[in-house]
């Protein structure tokens, strides 16, 4: 993904890419910062502890970064399918039935994409403890910004999933998705105290 091209697409007067894609890119940026901190720490011989763990973090961050960039495109394409479904003809009973079916399929896809973004970001957040333990302490602000980008991605993607759930009739899918989002938000919140303590120890204002 070319960032300049993405920003041009994002600010254009079209529906896609939109907030869901932006959330995925924010998550990718968070992963990139985690990868950078792990890589910088590994490049310094004086950091002898936890090198295997840091390499795991570096590789996982790289994988999730790639995944989230792909999800940005997936999210935009999913929304385009919603737009296409709305434009389907609805003159005859058969056309109306096909349109309803296509809309349900499109809204389901437009919900699944941000749910995958949330999952990827939560997986990336799980790398935080190892990064705080073994990463270069001088990079605490990079770690913090990376986490906050992931947190913003979780919040943004979750909102996009929730708004689409309102148009879906499959109650089982809606319930499972809502529970998954609730769990993800709790997991994201659970990382904040550890990061906040590390920030305060470094002389920074703790997270609110």
What's the layout of helices and strands?
Layout: H1 3-11, H2 19-42, H3 51-86, H4 93-125, H5 128-134, H6 140-165, H7 171-201
Helix pairs in contact: 2-3, 2-4, 2-6, 3-4, 4-6, 4-7, 6-7
CATH architecture name = Up-down Bundle
Task: State the share of residues found in helices, binned by percent.
Answer: over 70%
**Measured distance between first and last alpha carbons:** 33 Å
The CATH superfamily label reads Formiminotetrahydrofolate cyclodeaminase monomer, up-and-down helical bundle
Q: Determine and state the CATH class.
A: Mainly Alpha
Q: Which band does the percent of strand residues land in?
A: under 5%
> Which regions contain 5 or more consecutive residues with pLDDT less than 50?
none
Main sheet attributes: strand count, strand direction, barrel closure: none
- The count of β-strands is 0
CA radius of gyration is 20 Å
| Structural domain count | 1
Put simply, the count of helices is 7
Helix and strand composition category:
mainly alpha
CATH topology name? Four Helix Bundle (Hemerythrin (Met), subunit A)
What is the N-to-C succession of helices and strands? HHHHHHH
Average pLDDT: 96
| General shape | elongated
Would you kindly provide a written description of the structure presented here, covering whatever features stand out?
The protein has 208 residues and is an all-alpha fold. It has one domain: Formiminotetrahydrofolate cyclodeaminase monomer, up-and-down helical bundle (Four Helix Bundle (Hemerythrin (Met), subunit A)). Helix content is 80%, strand content 0%. The protein contains seven helices and no strands. The protein has helices at 3-11, 19-42, 51-86, 93-125, 128-134, 140-165, 171-201. The longest helix has 36 residues, at 51-86. The model has no long low-confidence stretch (mean pLDDT 96).
